[in-house]
Amino acid sequence: MTEFWLISAPGEKTCQQTWDKLMLATTRTNNLSTNNKFNIPDLKVVLVFYYDVNTKEELSLAHVVKKVAQYMADVLEDSRDKVQENLLANGVDLVTYISRFQWDMAKYPIKQSLKNISEIISKQATQIDNDLKARASAYNNLKGNLQNLERKNAGSLLTRSLADIVKKDDFVLDSEYLVTMLVVVPKTGYADWQKTYETLAEMVVPRSTKLLFEDIDSGLFSVTLFRKAIDDFKHKARENKFTVREFLYNEEEMKADKEEMTRLSTDKKKQFGPLVRWLKVNFSEAFIAWIHIKALRVFVESVLRYGLPVNFQAMLLQPNKKNMKKLREVLNDLYKHLDSSAAIIDAAMDIPGLNLSQQEYYPYVYYKIDCNLLDFKV
Questions:
Q1: How far apart are alpha carbons 260 and 224 in whole angstroms?
Q2: Beta-bridge partners for 226
């Protein structure tokens, strides 16, 4: 997706002049970025508000936003290429939401202090994160149990469940003396099996073998013998590279397994729709809260840097990828007069009020908004 640079610079005679200067430098004579004004309302200025709180909450919210997005991709499974169309904020795509950002007065009343607004957002993020953990745990357990059953019914004849392959008619049942064995024979060994199976033990019933099922490599054969010959038959079969599968035909157990798989599959389908809807709603909530925290940080740092009364223009730049370096140089030329020390500040220095946690410091307020929220490309 897209990267944005959220910056602010002090107002000239008017904030409009600050905006016009940026537009002239970055768009009218070249094509360095696509710009939008970023509207931050007049928030309550309380200088005792601790700037670090915003930093922690933004990191926490960014983590929640990414977790919800990634989990939605996981839940969509084979349809994960459609995840992007489900990652919306207020019903619009993320680029549109950020570009047209408007402060949500109902959720985050500006009459409240910055600290209170920050706490509202923090509680919201914690609630979403806790709910996600609970919902993901329940759905993952269901999905895991279903996958375990599905794995039993897939794979090689040497390991997979045989319950859905065999039928009651394939077995001699309720006999005191006779038993039906199931043997996996490599396809290359079919001829050897037909020649030798009757001689693998003394009491094998002649012409009793039958091919029940085949996969790519092997076939599943049944053979009937006397119970007293089981051990000898197994030993000789192993010597001839035939694999006897331990299997007891039990209709009740087989029926219970099939019913369990049907139940789990039905439950997964029932939970899928409501879970995706919850993820869509709460991704939107978390993303909106995250952008509001970005706005809070821009406001606080702008006040700390440019002073009172509040007079700055927040601006959203969508850099042209090919011209990022040039854009950075143009911005530096435009705003270097704001802080001559910016070029020599060591990012490892801990200076209160400065945005050094991102390992980047410029003479203007700067925050990156990275909308690449997934660990894979869609």
A1: 31
A2: 178
pTM, two decimal places: 0.81
Distance of alpha carbon 6 from alpha carbon 98, whole angstroms: 10
As a three-state string, the secondary structure of the chain is CCEEEEEEEECCCCHHHHHHHHHHHHHHCCCCEEEEECCCCCCCCCCCCCHHHHHHHHHHHHHHHHHHHHHHHHHHHHHHHHHHHHCEECCEEHHHHHHCCCCCCCCCCCCCCHHHHHHHHHHHHHHHHHHHHHHHHHHHHHHHHHHHHHHHCCCCCCCCCCCCCCCHHHCCCCCCCEEEEEEEEEHHHHHHHHHHHHHCCCCECCCCCEEEEECCCEEEEEEEEEHHHHHHHHHHHHHCCCEEECCCCCHHHHHHHHHHHHHHHHHHHHHHHHHHHHHHHHHHHHHHHHHHHHHHHHHHHHHHHHCCCCCEEEEEEEECHHHHHHHHHHHHHHHHHHCCCHHHCCCCCCCCCCCCCCCCCCCCEEEEEECCCCCCCC
- For residues 62, 66, 69 and 70, what is the CA-based torsion angle, rounded to 10 degrees? -170
- List the strands of the sheet with 33-37, edge to edge: 33-37, 312-319, 3-10, 365-370
Rounded-to-integer distance, Cα 298 and Cα 99, Å: 16
User: Cis (ω within 30 of 0) for the bond into 363?
Assistant: no
Residues 6+ apart with CB under 8 A from 96: none
Query: Please, what are the averages of pLDDT over each run of 10 residues along the chain (378 residues)?
Result: 90 93 89 95 68 75 96 92 93 96 96 89 96 97 93 89 92 95 97 97 96 96 97 97 94 90 95 97 97 93 90 96 93 91 50 50 94 74
In terms of C-beta density within 10 A (0-12 exposed, 13-18 middle, 19 or more buried), how is residue 167 classed?
A: exposed
